[in-house]
Amino acid sequence: MRRKAMFTVGKKKNKGVVSRMSRRPFQHVYMALRRLRELKKIVPDAHDADVDVLLRRTADYICILELKLTVLRRVSAIYGV
């Protein structure tokens, strides 16, 4: 027989569950706008870009970061660091 855990791992279970219908009607829009603002802070040269330009620059920035990481890994493998 297994004992119940004294604590939960992961997400907490809410006893007072709020249904999706009782949330603010445009909460997902506000969340998306907040994430776009945060993305504009991270990606260089994207402060006054539209959404499509911002996403394209973000993809380019991710590719550049991956390339830099590959170069750094190879340099560290060469020099044994």
Protein model, in words:
- 56% of the residues lie in helices and 0% in strands.
- It has a domain of 36 residues.
- By secondary structure, it is mostly helical.
Summarize the structure.
The protein is mostly helical.
Task: Categorize the overall geometry.
Answer: flat
Series of H and E elements: HH
Q: Return the structural class.
A: mainly alpha
Radius of gyration: 22 Å
Q: Care to count the β-strands?
A: 0
DSSP helix count? 2
- End-to-end CA span: 51 Å
User: In percent, how much strand structure appears in the residues?
Assistant: under 5%
Record the SSE blueprint.
Layout (H helix, E strand, L loop, with lengths): L26 H16 L8 H29 L2
Organism: Miscanthus lutarioriparius
Protein name: BHLH domain-containing protein
List keywords for this structure.
mainly alpha, flat, BHLH domain-containing protein, 2 helices, about 80 residues
